[in-house]
Specification:
3 domains; Phage tail protein beta-alpha-beta fold; single chain; Jelly Rolls
């Protein structure tokens, strides 16, 4: 279970406990809230999500029902937080059950491409996902508006539906479409999102960064800071047409892209992973002559068994 799901489950447990009129462990509840700011945020989110439900439960009590009137009268004599907690608890039982059902109801299937292979997955008449080589993704048979990128690179061409936005999860991160053509690259713990049309919201429930056309969000490492930069819209997803372009790109990201695109196993030489290079090149010639990469990017390329080591002089 991820940390977010664990905290959400704990928040739900605490909310149900607090809703019990006999609840007394306020010290433990306060201690849990103080342990991590994420605890308070999760609890507030759960409470807010069911507040409307609690109000509806209270409002729905029949005014001419003697039992209902008696119950309401008794409720007014209880401490306010216990009375409100009981109503919220009733809603949380429903909301928690729905959340658990949704979390466990996905019917996922996996598609994986080999290095050098490109595959297109059509999710509906106007939504498709193009997978680059060396990519693994999961889709949901029950929900055509969801995808999970495990690793690799994919170009999303999405029919926007404001009521049901397309959602992509990448590790702990979430991307939400806003009428969109966008490209996502995920290598290890590094992430890049580039937008050609529409917009993408990055982690809408946390940072909520909007990535607009011609913009690119990059993050090095799972906990690294993200940066927003510029990219020519025509370069977004250009690998589908057999071209890759690099602009001050770390060499480890370059060799990962080239291995995916060509099917040739490139690897970064020791000490060169963070060195940056720039250039635009066609993929097909590199399949025939992997060493041709050298003069094109100003790097050194040498054979090392079945792979090609790439370094910066």
């Amino acid at each position: 279970m991820s940390d977010d799901n664990r905290i959400r489950a704990e928040a739900l447990d605490w909310a149900l406990a607090v809703g019990d009129p006999t609840f007394e462990d306020w010290e433990g509840f306060t201690r849990w809230l103080d342990e991590d700011p994420a605890h308070a945020r999760a609890y507030d989110s759960v409470a807010a999500a069911v507040a409307d439900g609690a109000e509806a439960i209270v409002s729905a009590a029949p005014a001419n029902d003697d039992a209902g009137a008696t119950a309401m009268a008794a409720a007014h004599h209880r401490p306010r937080r216990a009375w409100l907690g009981s109503a919220i608890a009733a809603s949380l039982v429903l909301a928690g059950g729905l959340w658990a059902w949704q979390a466990g109801s996905r019917d996922l299937y996996r598609i994986e491409t080999a290095p050098g292979q490109v595959r297109t997955v059509s999710l509906d008449a106007q939504t498709r996902v193009d997978l680059a080589g060396g990519t693994a993704m999961e889709f949901d048979r029950k929900d055509a508006r969801f995808a999970r990128l495990e690793n690799g690179q994919a170009l999303f061409t999405v029919r926007h539906d404001e009521a049901r936005p397309f959602r992509v999860t990448v590790g702990e991160d979430t991307l939400l479409d806003v009428g969109t053509v966008f490209d996502v690259r995920h290598d290890g713990e590094n992430l890049r999102v580039a937008v050609a049309e529409g917009a993408v919201r990055f982690n809408p429930e946390a940072q909520d960064v909007r990535i607009s056309p011609g913009e690119m969000l990059e993050r090095r490492g799972r906990t690294g800071d993200y940066t927003l930069g510029r990219i020519a819209a025509v370069q977004v997803g250009e690998w589908r047409a057999g071209r890759v372009t690099f602009q001050d790109t770390p060499l480890d990201a370059v060799v990962a892209d080239l291995t995916r695109a060509t099917g040739v196993t490139y690897a970064v030489a020791a000490g060169s992973a963070d060195r940056k290079v720039s250039g635009s090149l066609l993929v097909a010639p590199l399949r025939d002559d992997p060493a041709a990469l050298g003069p094109l990017l100003g790097v050194e390329v040498r054979a090392d068994g079945k792979r090609w080591l790439v370094g910066v002089p």
